[in-house]
Amino acid sequence: MKQMTGCLCAVALLAFAAPALAKTWQVDAAHSTLTFTNTYQNVEYTGQFRRFDANIAYDPNDLAHAKFDVSVDVSSLDTQNSERDHTALGADFFDASKFPKAHFITIAFHKAAGGKVIAYGTLTLHGVSKPVSLTVAFAPHGDTATLDVTAQLKRLDFGIGTGQWADPSMIGDGVTVRGHLTLRSPR
Amino acid sequence: MPLRSTERGWGALVRTFHWLVAALILAQGVIGLTMVQMGLTPAKVRVFALHKSIGMTILALVLLRIAWRLTERRPADPPVMPPWQRRAAHAVHVALYLLILAIPLSGWWFNSASNAPLVWFGWFDLPSLTGGLDPVWKPRALLLHQTLFWILVALLVIHVGAALWHHFRQRDDVLLRMVVSPRKKSGET
Fold first, then answer.
1. Whole-model pTM above 0.90?
2. What number is the ipTM of this complex?
3. Exposed, middle or buried, A64 (CB in 10 Å: 0-12/13-18/19+)?
4. Which of B10, B71, B107, B115 could be disulfide-bonded to B133 (CB atoms 3.0-4.6 Å)?
């Protein structure tokens, strides 16, 4: 009996000690996109990464326990131009065979003035880790929700297309990344 | 120096169109055949952009040339030319017009189907003809662009050869009147 009590206590303790997370969501991959906008010869174009895994824990009323953990399959890059994609995945740019995954993980969330939520985190891309902040827009609809995030990056910060390709009139340095996730409550 | 063509010779505007487009076509041929051999560097991207810009320039010039052609006469053929030569010469001229319209258009089409930018000398964007990537038509447009180019090369050999034949063998003014102003008729001042 004493043993059993101890066991129960341990279970209770574990439950309490487990990191309390905000509500976790399942990502509906078919209705989620990860796109980016950049310029090529000063003409804007949009590309996307077709394969990524996102672990999302988010409750707008409990930002202290929110967490985004996103892993991107770099080789799923698609800018609707096969020559450009082939070049972008090569050694001068993403070097996807050496760095097949990009990873973003949040460190903290902050509600800014005006109610805008900013997620601070670290992006590891092309072997380079840099702090990146996202603006977060979350819209719940009952059991589902949409999560839209936007980040401004500089490709050269991550060593993508340096040297002869660094000229921003050829390929813009600034990149706007947009994630649009459709979330569902786990059953 | 008359701007308009006359019974006896080509006007200054037509001669300008002719030699300007001739020079641009020559440049396009050299650039086009060279650029596809280049390794992928920013220089290659710039040379492709130049090729596209010159091609669109030729397209615009040819459209203007055809519009101008509709407003004026063409000089008479040398009276000694047999009818088959006249027909052949005119057929080659029509084919050249069609080709120098179709080659830039097929290039524009290929560029559009490839979803590549098209910025005229870095100055303004030209719209896509396909509204984005078109993987089905992309290889067909490229094949058409290349095939029409080689047909153009063959016709230019005939065109230039015929011009030289007129000048050196027939000793008529068919070539010269594309170079110099029409001579004035006697009595004109």
1. no
2. 0.75
3. exposed
4. B115
Report yes or no on B74 lying in a domain.
Answer: yes
If DSSP codes are grouped into helix, strand and coil, which group holds residue A84?
Answer: helix
Distance from CA of A49 to the nearest CA of B (A): 17
Residue B106, in any domain of the structure: yes
pLDDT at B127 over 70: yes
| A165 Cβ under 8 Å from any chain B Cβ | yes
What is the separation, in whole angstroms, between the first and last Cα of chain B? 12
**Per residue in A69-108, pLDDT tens?**
999 999 999 999 998 999 999 999 999 999 999 999 999 9
Listed by start position, the domains of chain A span 23-184
Q: Which of B41, B114, B116 is closest, CB to CB, to A164?
A: B41
The CATH number given to whatever domain includes residue B89 is 1.20.950
Rounded to the nearest integer, the mean pLDDT of chain A is 90
Confidence of residue B11 (pLDDT cuts 50, 70, 90): confident
A23-184: CATH architecture? Beta Barrel (2.40)
| pLDDT (0 to 100) of residue B188 | 46
Domain count along chain B: 1
Instruction: Please give the Cα distance from A68 to A54 (Å, whole number).
Output: 7
The residue segments making up the domain with residue B125 are: 12-178
C-beta atoms surrounding B150 within 10 Å: 9
